[in-house]
Amino acid sequence: MAFSITGILFVMLEFFRGMLWFLIPLILLDLILLGWYFKRISGRRNKAGLAFKTSIGFGVFAFVITLILLPGSTHATWGDLIGWIDYFSLILVSLGMGAAGAVAIFPVMLHLVGIGPRKEAVQKTQATRPGQTADENAG
Amino acid sequence: MNQDDKKIRAAVHRALESSGMSRRNFLRLSGGGALMAGATASGLLISRPARAVPTSAHIVIVGAGAAGLDSASRLSRELDGARITIIDRQEAHYYQPGLTLVASGLWGADKVTDRNARYLPSDVEWIHDMVAEYDPDNNRVVTEDGRTVEYDYLLVTTGLQINYSDIEGMSRDLIGQHGIGCVYDRPDVALATWQAIDRFTTEGGVGLFTRAPGAIKCAGAPLKMTMLTENRLNERGTRDRAEMHYLPPAKSLFSQPDIHDFLTEHLPGRGIQIDWDHPLKAIDPGARTATFATPEGDRTMEYDFIHVVPPMSAPDALRNSPLAAPAESKFAGWLEVDQYELQHLRYANVFGAGDVNGVPIGKTSASVKAQVPVAVENLIQNIQEKENTARYNGYTSCPLITQVGRAILLEFDYDLKMTPSFPIITPYEPRWTSWLMKDYLLLPAYRAMLRGRI
Ligand SMILES: Cc1cc2nc3c(=O)[nH]c(=O)nc-3n(C[C@H](O)[C@H](O)[C@H](O)COP(=O)(O)OP(=O)(O)OC[C@H]3O[C@@H](n4cnc5c(N)ncnc54)[C@H](O)[C@@H]3O)c2cc1C
């Protein structure tokens, strides 16, 4: 039986419906953190690249954890994965969890590691250390 | 619908009644309801989706199970101005496909228990009662509390009834005691079944797994219970203390021939003996014996655990009504619908969806998912006095669980041809991916269906 894209989206909505109490505040918090980041960053060095890399690291961690725990969470064992499709499904779901984890943590990381020192401070430092380039400060 | 609209419609209804003309005839004479809806306030004041069909028809849905809720959601969305009434006394909604997991100790009962009210659109009137009598010649039903409800169109979605009394000595109260289990009932009964299986898989003994003759819902469920129990015995290290029998009523294990062949090898391969032609006739709970009416005569077997699958039929009220297929039909007692268009063969304003339909296959919620859009679309076509356009191809599906962690995702149609939604998942071998879908995705898909979204 053919599934439509909207049908799949509605199934996903039902899948997450029970978690909306948690997901909606999380998404709102992320959006607020993102907006706040853009406010905080003005006049400072942008180290979003470092925040991105750290978030990817977290995503990889979430991917690995899902990979390890998913079969057990379905009461199955590793021995139940017997064809390429089973490994493909496991990797696909784990990738989804990894990506979701990375996206969710990114605004937090922006605040933790994505804001560099004030640009004037950098310029002052550069003035005192003429040989150094601005790139060395970028994440 | 606003209050003015309701008042106008009620006044029109009373005027028609006093003139002796049924609303349905009026709707037909007046050009299929569009005129009526156009004359009402709602047509002017409330904007509906462009595709919604204007009508003031009264549609009665009997049964608020999977098919009833799905139908109500769709009709409410696809019609503008219709009066939609659903009749069912049951408040709780059970996700029946999850009962096998409850009865095998994997899910709690709360995971499969929900409320109908959560899925019923607010503009659908809910009568908390049961239909006791169908009077299709007069376009009305009578409820157990004596209320008469008239309709222009009737959608029958009452599911089926489980006839414990067809097995001598058997009743629902026995489930969970005397080593008796049955997965085909409420979640608390499935839990009681798990308690019986829990004991059997701890202590061992003789396990009998029966299957009723005739049409039953989810014909895979008796097989799933057999294989899950065998799996549990293995897990507990008690397999060698148990003797297992699967007892089909005839010479078939499953209607789809490839799966029949697979199971014919698979079950004996797991040490499960197949005793062909063994319909369960009687049970003696005290003595723990079961009697089977085999072609060679009655055979009585002792058991420590028995999974009873009682015969099933359309609910009595339907079975004894003019809507039921006659005795000479191969679907005797079930709702007599055209198997493709799902419209009643004798009463053109009656449609059916779900387990109650007398169709060759398809007593699953997967069939409900495929049938409801067809029944609803054809009903709406009839409101507009157009030909039926939608056809049901017999689609049915069942994740046949072979053990915890593995299942075969079966999908096929009237021709018994496999029709996989995801061709990359083989329907011929047990896979964890199919199990993953059963465990995580089928419940959300079922809920999306109840909201008429898939
Ligand atoms: C153990 C088990 C396992 C299953 N596994 C699967 C599976 O894996 N996959 C799958 O697709 N399907 C499965 N099914 C089948 C699926 O659950 C049913 O086919 C589906 O629920 C049928 O929907 P329905 O609306 O026709 O009937 P139901 O959902 O049973 O609803 C019928 C409703 O009608 C009401 N009713 C009855 N008589 C009257 C009356 N006279 N007046 C008013 N209301 C009335 C009842 O109260 C009930 O609410 C399984 C079922 C069971 C029991």
From TrEMBL, chain A:
<keyword id="KW-0812">Transmembrane</keyword>
<keyword id="KW-1133">Transmembrane helix</keyword>
<feature type="transmembrane region" description="Helical">
    <location>
        <begin position="90"/>
        <end position="114"/>
    </location>
</feature>
<feature type="transmembrane region" description="Helical">
    <location>
        <begin position="20"/>
        <end position="38"/>
    </location>
</feature>
<keyword id="KW-0472">Membrane</keyword>
<protein>
    <submittedName>
        <fullName>Uncharacterized protein</fullName>
    </submittedName>
</protein>
<feature type="transmembrane region" description="Helical">
    <location>
        <begin position="50"/>
        <end position="70"/>
    </location>
</feature>
UniProtKB/TrEMBL annotation, chain B:
<dbReference type="GO" id="GO:0071949">
    <property type="term" value="F:FAD binding"/>
</dbReference>
<dbReference type="InterPro" id="IPR015904">
    <property type="entry name" value="Sulphide_quinone_reductase"/>
</dbReference>
<dbReference type="InterPro" id="IPR023753">
    <property type="entry name" value="FAD/NAD-binding_dom"/>
</dbReference>
<dbReference type="Pfam" id="PF07992">
    <property type="entry name" value="Pyr_redox_2"/>
</dbReference>
<protein>
    <submittedName>
        <fullName>Sulfide:quinone oxidoreductase</fullName>
    </submittedName>
</protein>
<dbReference type="GO" id="GO:0070221">
    <property type="term" value="P:sulfide oxidation, using sulfide:quinone oxidoreductase"/>
</dbReference>
<feature type="domain" description="FAD/NAD(P)-binding">
    <location>
        <begin position="58"/>
        <end position="171"/>
    </location>
</feature>
<dbReference type="InterPro" id="IPR006311">
    <property type="entry name" value="TAT_signal"/>
</dbReference>
<dbReference type="GO" id="GO:0070224">
    <property type="term" value="F:sulfide:quinone oxidoreductase activity"/>
</dbReference>
<dbReference type="InterPro" id="IPR036188">
    <property type="entry name" value="FAD/NAD-bd_sf"/>
</dbReference>
